[in-house]
Design goal:
heterodimer; A: mainly alpha; Histone, subunit A; two-stranded antiparallel ribbon; 3 helices; 35% helix; 4% strand; flat; B: alpha/beta; 11-stranded mixed sheet; 39% helix; 12% strand
């Protein structure tokens, strides 16, 4: 289950991770090893076995529709690198 | 009296009896931290001033109660100094999750486990080191440098709650909170000679716990005795409207349940797959001796089988990274954490994440992204979820015949710093006996059961069906009292 540096680059792009050349090479080797190990699950007969996403029976939990005071805006903005006019500030997403 | 040597329960009893104050307990813990933590690096942040304020408030509440015994009695954990793993939000304190990508982040609110302890009057002395985002088994993946094992400074304390474990083992705190996604409370407890409990999935709220693998994560206590862990679990367990996966089940009085524990007739399953090749022989011997000790106390050990044990590790290393890759998508330098500025929004996000995440976080984000990506989703992620069903069924089947399972917590005692850090798969094997419990959502406890030839602690793991914490604590305490384990000499 060897994955190439090009594939690693593609996954990094999906994950929005900037990786160095050295990291790309390293992860190609290490991810291949882990994926090869994970491929051992192919030996299992899983026909008809339902997947488990959670150990609990999945159900939607709704809270009462009651208005409560939200957290203070200034408190929530305090950790941001850049803010303006009570908002998080980012560069343009569209050029 | 050396206050820091007191167990949490003993400190609580003296505090209630008025023989010691919270200020004294807290000062002792802070002084011990100042003296020892330079060598251990268990703490990422010590809040001496905040802890002293909490201690004085706790002392005032005891004073008010003594003046008016008919009034409200301070809660069981009131005035007790605790260390908190840095993946839990404590309002006003840094919360980095051991990652550079959260450097400088100040938590704006309390996690529910914290707000419950705060309301009960507990004292928080600081935030403890962890593998980045709780991903690791040694704390070597921390973005702020590793923690060392207090019994041998050349060795790791385990992980990812290694800072919490080292803090309690080295008597810098009387108890601590950690988090356990694949063994991160139990494994460091085993390597540091402590008791550590991973509750049933949903028993403790995850609100304010920085998420790693949301279907696996649980907050759990670490302390120096079973009674201590019972005290802490009682303080943090229970339903929380802020966590839709928290269980709406009554919380037993865990501490009181320890008064009446007999092991007579207790059916103890000994899973053959958990005594696998590659185990350190002394670990196997100590765990088998512990099982014989349970037999001497009236329990009935019998061999059982969990046929899909070998699949737990590959299953976990698909599911946990998949969940992590989604959870860690939020760290983009927009709302919190340092930002690498320049270029377009997406260039900034890529650069921020590339610079902020450490090697293991990146590795798991990549692995998870791969497992969830088009073309591989069915082959890797769905297969792992199906395998998870088989692992869960193994436990359901075995718990029809036995009350608890007994096995080792870890295949070896504490290993050396640097020994496994370049080989992720070997490092992952440290959790080979703990992962399946998280996949099945079960409770499990680790407690010390001996020392290897080098004087390093060995952990016994007891696993039970969902919501069997009372029984696990009872069995653990019966063993603890019979075995009379003593911690080895501290190296600091």
């Amino acid at each position: 289950m060897a994955i190439s540096k090009t594939e690693v680059q593609h996954i990094a792009e999906l994950a929005r991770l900037q990786l160095s050349e050295a990291e790309l090479a390293e992860y190609a080797v290490q991810l291949s090893a882990v994926l090869e190990y994970a491929a051992s699950l192919n030996a299992l007969d899983l026909a008809g076995v339902p997947p488990t996403a959670s150990v609990q029976a999945l159900h939607t939990v709704l809270r009462a529709d009651v208005v409560r005071p939200p957290m203070e805006r200034d408190v929530l903005l305090a950790n941001a690198a850049e803010t303006a006019a009570g908002c998080f500030r980012v560069p343009p997403a569209q050029e | 009296m050396e206050l820091t040597a007191l167990s949490l329960s003993a400190a609580a009893a003296l505090l209630r009896a008025g023989e010691v104050s919270s200020v004294q307990l807290t000062e002792a813990a802070l002084q011990r931290t100042a003296a020892a933590d330079g060598k251990l690096h268990a703490f990422l942040h010590v809040d001496a001033a905040g802890a002293m304020l909490q201690a004085r408030a706790a002392d005032a509440s005891f004073a008010a109660w003594r003046k008016d015994p008919a009034g409200a009695q301070p809660a069981a954990v009131a005035g007790l100094p605790l260390a908190i793993k840095d993946v839990l939000c404590v309002a006003g304190l840094p919360a980095t999750a051991g990652s550079r990508i959260l450097q400088g982040f100040i938590a704006p609110y309390d996690a529910t486990a914290i707000s419950r302890l705060r309301a009960a009057g507990a004292v928080f002395t600081g935030k403890t080191n962890t593998d980045e985002f709780a991903m690791g088994s040694s704390t070597e993946n921390s973005g702020y440098g590793p923690t060392r094992n207090p019994f041998d400074l050349a060795r790791v304390p385990g992980g990812s709650s290694g800072g919490s474990a080292a803090a309690v083992a080295a008597r810098m705190a009387y108890g601590a909170l950690g988090s356990d996604t694949g063994g991160s409370v139990r494994q460091p407890a085993a390597l540091c000679g402590l008791v550590g409990l991973k509750p049933t999935y949903g028993r403790v709220s995850r609100y304010g716990l920085i998420a790693y693998g949301s279907s696996l994560d649980q907050v759990g206590p670490l302390a120096r005795s079973v009674a201590d862990v019972a005290l802490l679990l009682g303080a943090i367990a229970g339903h929380d409207p802020l966590d839709s996966t928290s269980l709406n089940e009554p919380v037993p009085d865990y501490a009181a349940a320890l008064q009446a524990s007999s092991l007579s007739g207790l059916r103890v399953g000994v899973p053959a797959e958990y005594f696998a090749a590659g185990m350190q022989p002394e670990v196997e011997q100590a765990v088998r001796a512990a099982i014989e000790q349970l037999r001497a106390l009236g329990a009935l050990p019998r061999p059982v089988t969990l046929p899909h044990t070998a699949q737990a590790l590959p299953t976990y290393y698909m599911i946990a990274p998949a969940e992590a890759s989604a959870n860690l998508a939020r760290f983009d330098g927009v709302r919190y954490g340092p930002r690498v500025a320049g270029g377009s929004l997406w260039e900034q996000v890529r650069a921020t994440r590339g610079a902020g995440f450490g090697a293991e976080a990146k590795r798991r984000i990549m692995l998870g992204t791969y497992a969830l990506s088009a073309g591989y989703y069915d082959a890797f992620y769905v297969r792992a979820q199906q395998a998870r069903t088989l692992i869960k069924r193994d436990f359901e089947s075995v718990f029809k015949d036995v009350d608890v399972l007994a096995c080792a917590t870890t295949p070896t005692t504490a290993f050396k710093l640097g020994e496994k850090v370049d080989d992720p798969l070997t490092m992952y094997l440290s959790d080979v006996f703990t992962l399946a419990v998280n996949l099945a959502g079960l409770p499990a406890i680790s407690l010390p059961c001996g020392l290897d030839a080098g004087g390093l602690p060995i952990g016994l793991q007891l696993i039970g069906p969902a919501l069997s914490e009372v029984r696990l604590l009872q069995v653990a305490q019966a063993y603890e009292q019979a075995a009379g384990w003593q911690a080895p000499q501290l190296a600091v």
